[in-house]
Specification:
heterodimer; A: about 110 residues; mainly beta; 12 strands; globular; B: about 110 residues; 7-stranded mixed sheet; 4-stranded antiparallel sheet; 11 strands; about 50% strand
């Protein structure tokens, strides 16, 4: 069975601090995709990144970076120099062939001014 | 602008009544999805459709029904058989039903049943 764990239920940081959101996944498939989504207070999920299981290169996009490690089944997300607008619930998700998408429970990030 | 619309934003119903949630997309996407979100549980898949007139049950389909008569529309009916219908419902679409395509989400409908 597939599973996504986001152990951090809520995180609070002060603006300009760096913060890392953890994501650990379980799957028996060798081909799979991992995603991160952001859900601001408005409720609509916004796609942030997709990573396939054969690409372990880390990725940086502005203040956002992602660290994919197959050895530990983790796909962590770091926000550098956090801003108040980063306050949201962040979801990690997993999809593999023949299985439905599985979302983690989410991590609520609060960035305080 | 292209996107997904869900209406209404908030919906209130009495227990025992069926209610239909609207979802429309103008992204020309083939695949559409319905998720339910409860506090602390992430999103759970209710139904999905990869093409018109075709849909499949997700992980928690009991008490729900859908139709896909048009590519743009994927309405969800919450029936009286759903034991705990109060939740936040999100509709999504993707170009195809394939794992390498990201899903685009609507703003959601918050349903309260009393």
């Amino acid at each position: 069975a597939q599973k996504v764990t986001q152990a951090q239920t809520e995180i609070s940081v002060v603006e300009k601090e760096d913060v890392t959101l953890d994501c650990v996944y379980e799957t028996r498939d060798t081909t799979y995709y991992l995603f991160w989504y952001k859900q601001p207070p408005s409720g609509e999920l916004v796609f942030l990144i997709r990573r396939n299981s054969f690409d372990e290169q880390n990725e940086i996009s502005g203040r956002y970076s992602w660290n994919f490690q197959k050895s530990t089944s983790s796909f962590n997300f770091t926000i550098t120099a956090s801003q108040v607008v980063d306050s949201a619930v962040y979801f990690c998700a997993l999809g593999s062939y023949g299985q439905n998408f599985v979302f983690g429970p989410g991590t609520r990030l609060s960035v305080l001014p | 602008d292209g996107g997904i619309t869900q209406s209404p934003k908030y919906l209130f119903r009495k227990e025992g009544q069926n209610v239909t949630l609207s979802c429309e997309q103008n992204l020309n996407h083939d695949a559409m999805y319905w998720y339910r979100q409860d506090p602390g549980q992430g999103l759970r898949l209710i139904y999905y459709s990869q093409i018109v007139n075709d849909f499949q049950k997700g992980d928690i389909a009991e008490g729900y029904s859908v139709s896909r008569e048009k590519k743009e529309s994927f309405p969800l009916t919450v029936t009286s058989a759903q034991k705990n219908p109060t939740a936040f419902y999100l509709c999504a679409s993707s170009m195809q039903l394939a794992l390498n395509y990201e899903q685009y989400f609507g703003p959601g409908t918050r349903l309260t049943v009393t």
